[in-house]
Amino acid sequence: MARPCGLPPGHGPHGGRVRRYIGPFDRRVRRHAVQCVSNPCSQRGLRSWCDSVRLMLTKFNGLPAHVLFVHFVVVLVPLTALLAVACAVRPSWARRLGLALPVLGLVTLGMVPVTTHAGEWLESRVGDSPLLRKHTELGDGLLPWATGLFLVTALVWWLGRRAPQEPDPAAASASAAPASGSLAFASTTWFRVIAAVVTVVIAVGAVVDVYRIGDSGAKAAWTGGFSSSPQHHKG
């Protein structure tokens, strides 16, 4: 069996003895197996991998990753909000979508801190201005809306699973017994109306907030950065 990093059996990278791994091995293998927790080779590899992930979340293809991530947020938040409202109004659509609805809400929620992290990295590398400060302040307020959007998608999915199926005319007489337990609670009209209203409020708030953030970001990026008259280029 190869010794880790060429070290003698039972010795660490700095000459000291380290704790051996206790496992169902024979005596010869156990004598040469040591833990590599203090191994500088594995530590350097983990550090390099973390640095690569961190760089990928701030720069992509030589450009700030924030300008790429904002496109995902601009698309995902309105899409999730629209599907949440539609499924809250029509529980049969929630049953058809299944877990795709809360998973979409979770992906949308996860993209928000990733985008704001990339934006904070970019903010420290561009000039300061009141428009930029307003954009960053609005961007910090999107996470609560995205969290609420994820929660309502999970609620709508749960209600869709427990909603009564479409009535069958042939078996209408067999449904005289009332539902009980969580099914009866989830199928009550007042609870569904409240859930739909909350879903609409959170969906509209999230979409409006995304619009305000995008508008302020465009103003921060382009105010004073273009000419009102056409420019003539040579060639």
Sequence-ordered SSE layout with sheet pairings:
Layout: H1 27-32, H2 40-56, E1 59-60, E2 63-64, H3 66-89, H4 91-97, H5 100-123, H6 130-140, H7 142-162, H8 181-186, H9 189-222
Antiparallel strand pairs: 1-2
Helix pairs in contact: 3-4, 3-5, 3-7, 3-9, 4-7, 5-6, 5-7, 6-9, 7-9
Care to describe what's here?
The chain has helices spanning 27-32, 40-56, 66-89, 91-97, 100-123, 130-140, 142-162, 181-186, 189-222, and strands at 59-60, 63-64. A hairpin with a 2-residue loop joins strand 1 (59-60) and strand 2 (63-64). It folds into 2 domains: 4-50, no CATH class; 61-164 and 182-222. It is elongated. The model is unreliable at 16-41 and 168-180 (pLDDT under 50). By secondary structure, the protein is mainly alpha-helical. The protein has a two-stranded antiparallel sheet. The chain contains 9 helices and 2 strands. Helix 4 (91-97) crosses helix 7 and helix 6 (130-140) packs antiparallel against helix 9 (189-222).
Key features?
235 residues, mainly alpha, two-stranded antiparallel sheet, 9 helices, 2 strands, elongated
